[in-house]
Amino acid sequence: MAQQDPEELLEMSTETRELLEENNLRPLWEVEDDFGNTFGDMEPDIWKWEDIQASIDGIESDVPIADLPPGFQRRVAVPINTALGNAISNTIYVGVQTVSPGETAPSHRHGANALRYTINGNEDMKTVVAGEEFPMEDNDLVTTPQWEWHDHVNDSDETAAWLDVLDLPLVLDSLNRKNVFENHELERQPVTKTQGYWDSQYGRGRPADEKSDGSIPGPFEGNREPTPPYRFGWDEMEESLRQRAENDDPDPHDGYSLAYVNPATGQEPLFPTMSFRAQLLNEGPTDPHFHNAVEVYFVIEGEGATHVGDEALEWSQWDIFVVPPDEIHHHEPDGEAILLGMTDRPVFEAFNFYAEAEPSS
Ligand SMILES: [Fe+2]
Ligand SMILES: [Fe+2]
């Protein structure tokens, strides 16, 4: 007797199929093929600064930001991975935001973790977080952690630009949560602390008489030490990076890399969901490797290429690019370059799922 085709065995009656469809159900054998597809389809891609800049200029000339309701008063261009349709990666969102002279991006807070990485800044461009004004000078990184009020105030006479980096796709898509969000009753939150206050709580010298109780702010619970409001000034980060390059051996895959640590713990990751490193590349091409975590890069300075699978992403200053999970990649700087590396690796590590290897030659 001839073997029956398995496909035929799986045939369902029209009635059953309709019943499933009506209830938004699909049998396992059909969805099996889709597992991991969103993930696997993510493409290596690059967004050139000149294109981002042109897009922002377009938004600026078309959209009267000041006339919009508070939650929308942000001039942002968002790199979109074509396979995903809503963000650069499946876990990490990156946007490029500008604030014109005299403008304020109104105060709000939300469940998603965020940070700002300054592209074009100055000491009178400030991100106000939890009552303190943090100056945003070039290449400074300022955390705006989960459920902390934050607004951006440009008291200078120059347009400022920075990267917004959030764990929104992870929260919204993967965990299927709402981004719990609240607008402040004031456009600018009151400045209640002097500059340097948060550094006095989490810098090299700290209050001797009290300890963080580790509680999570807002309507959230968890067992990770929350990330405090904090500014990582570039001068110190660059100095540490150059000390490493002067004295240490580079990592074969990432060059000389320096982690932005959670100031509350002194360790990576900066946020439970995202990790950040400044990477100095100056020793020719790195060794190829691959891993299941995604990597998003911003070019702090220099030029070169990152080879991802068969593609060469050729980058120069302020470009943004993405290395999808499981793609073999290596960096090839043209002389010296510094990258900001952003990854969702902490999510994998939290569940003992992180995997990394070199390709077998
Ligand atoms: Fe925000
Ligand atoms: Fe990598």
In CATH, what is the homologous superfamily? Jelly Rolls
What is the tally of helical segments?
9
Question: How large, in whole angstroms, is the Cα Rg?
Answer: 23 Å
Query: CATH architecture, please?
Result: Sandwich
Share of helix among residues? 10-25%
Structural domain count: 1
Query: Which small-molecule ligands are present, each listed once?
Result: fe (ii) ion
Number of DSSP strand runs: 22
Strand content: 25-35%
Identify the strand order in the major beta sheet.
1-19-16-21-14-13
CATH class: Mainly Beta
N- to C-terminal separation?
47 Å
Secondary structure blueprint with pairings:
Elements: H1 6-9, H2 14-22, H3 28-31, H4 37-40, E1 45-47, H5 49-62, E2 75-77, E3 93-99, E4 104-110, E5 114-120, E6 122-129, E7 132-136, E8 141-144, E9 150-154, E10 160-166, H6 168-174, E11 181-183, H7 197-202, E12 231-232, H8 234-247, E13 256-259, E14 275-281, E15 290-291, E16 295-301, E17 304-308, E18 311-315, E19 320-323, E20 329-333, E21 337-343, H9 345-350, E22 356-357
Antiparallel strand pairs: 1-19, 2-3, 3-10, 4-9, 4-11, 5-8, 5-10, 6-7, 6-9, 8-12, 13-14, 14-21, 15-22, 16-19, 16-21, 17-18, 17-20
The site of one fe (ii) ion has 5 residues, from loops.
